[in-house]
């Protein structure tokens, strides 16, 4: 054969080389080979780097494999000792089985040799062309297969005509044999025969009757031939969309259960005729066969219209008169028919297409030039099976339509609504979708509880007694929804009249639903990437059939597809939420400093290039609440937060939609006025009046005042956002100096009137990391183990050098921070920087050193305190016991929220210390509420204790006081609580404390505050 000829191979190699270098190749190889080369190139297949891909999950025990195994076993004995391999692939070119002689050619079960992976091959061509294919040597696209030759033939299911797989023979190019083609064809037919043996007796009997009927109905003399079946491999190329249309119509005809003929419009503007007729076996098994009359294909003499075929069918005997088997004749001479003009293309010389439709075919065409058309068996089955096929196809259509219409947006609620609409009315009469609140808000989705919110409700009837969309529902544990959430599996309630778990949710509402016809329910989890979003419930009311297992499978598939779309929408919502959080204050949801600065800078840029006064007006109101710290001290942080939220709402009510209201920090707000004619001073005065309206805080009527600084940016002004903010800040402090509750417009000569104002302004800039604020540093004082001199800890303190590089005393820094509301920010800076420094210090050979951080009870009561502590340890990779929190103040009558927070931190492994300010008041009361591990004596208490231990008794001390103090210290040691004395100034104090059982010491004796890197690991004792 030419295909194995060396000359042909050299020519193919030359053409392949030209093709790969970009030359236009229009001649030489088969059209199918050249088309495959083009497809391989479009699919980005690399000739020198492509290879099969292995699928470890491929099922190797299929119906096709069981049918082919005996055939492959017989061939194995024939190819033994040769360089030949035979293999079987499925309809996706995945190798299911193989038998080898001396070489496997790298083709093992599980590997995929599809065209998009290895390029041109006989297997891929057989699937694409739907007929036997041969590819040898240079015709392969991949270099890997150049030395080989391969012949492949598709293996079809005799009943459906569908290609189930491909049988192939592979050998070395030099050993190719022309007889291999016949062997492949024979093996393929043998596998098809064994597939038919796996069918039921009824299916085989119907197919046999159909074929016998065709054989008996040959047209006598002059061109009688068999119709060409799709399952026999006609070579007629039918496009995939055309095949789908024909198969759907065939299933509907079989389901209808009566002989008929219809014309079907095909996707590409052509028309085919489907003929449905009865076939009957000698054993009285009756069924229906559907043939397709195509407008293309090899010549056949057939009826040429649906009307003609239907008329012929109606003239055939039926029932008992028909005989057995009954097979109406379809293939008759054209002269016997009178029919409209045929739809296929006419041969050359045919009459004009405008010939009247009533013209008989015989009179319109010469006998030797009558039009021809092909016929093929399309489907065969029984009426009941046909109905199931129609139902299955409709459900596939539902899934297809759902995939097209669910997920058209990235909105979670809209996606839920699309799911509900897609399932009605094909699967359900009513659909509800219930999602967790976190999913709807775009937050991180944890496994939802039975408390969900209805995101969608859609049905074919109105007025049902279902919870409406937007309603929050707490499902009882017995309900299908709660069981579905708990198990992660779908729940089917076929009869809701006998579903007490569902009825327990709301008996009165359930009674109405049952009366309205709701009778069957499927609840399916909406889950993707192991994240549970909620549940979808499908209900039937007007469809009388209860749900069954196949409905459950369909609902699960539909929900799985919808869950992927929900996942995409949720992730988008989450990203949008994170973006919103990055630009907004979490407490008030106002714009934060970052967003305000960006909008102010944008407004300044427009103002610089546009000198018109009206349309580009730009002004900034800087608002600071007066005496806000007193609110926190008197009513607590929760009341302070309430006041901030109320203030945010009042400021927003005073601004326009085009303005930006922002919370800068603490109790500082700003209002950016942009565009339009407006008097900024009048808006500022309106804000002052609005804020003065009394409100109730913690059960007490409270009146709020604010100081406002106003900056109006002149046209053409070259300014930055930070400079405008500083000007507004200066004007605000000037308003405070005037007596608070006032508004001041910025003027260039305006400046802070006192060192205290300057200090506050500088500290604010320092906390924000801005210029003019000086520097904030952390200093450390060592904590020593008195018996060994070993450094076991350091106490961290924040030090501030103002813009003039002068060190601000610690008490002054604390007071200023409290007055400006910056204390929480400073505490955060201290904790973060100290943990960072300790992590570095421990890595240099001091792994046992602990960090002592002073905290107050008010700090611990803040809800953000625990999170900040845990985050600092996590970020800087410190173990929990590396941190000691020194709690100042009495604990036995303090806020329970603070105690709960401290206990929670102690449970994580963080150590707690209590500071005793007076050695005369040593009691166990402060220790009772908390798991304390260290008692800290401040400098005064340490001095008092050492004096009493040295002199025996201090002035005014009762005789038994010393005994009680000694007993207290002994009890403390017995409980395993360490004692730390601070303010140690000399060696005598240190020795006295060590002798009395105080194990830890801190003070000037061991060094004052210093950078952590300068603290040694041990001190002389």
Automatic annotation (TrEMBL):
Residues 342-365 are annotated as: Disordered. Residues 756-1021 form the EAL domain. Pfam families: EAL, GAF, GGDEF. This is Diguanylate cyclase/phosphodiesterase. Residues 616-748 form the GGDEF domain. NCBIfam families: GGDEF (TIGR00254). It comes from Frankia casuarinae (strain DSM 45818 / CECT 9043 / HFP020203 / CcI3).
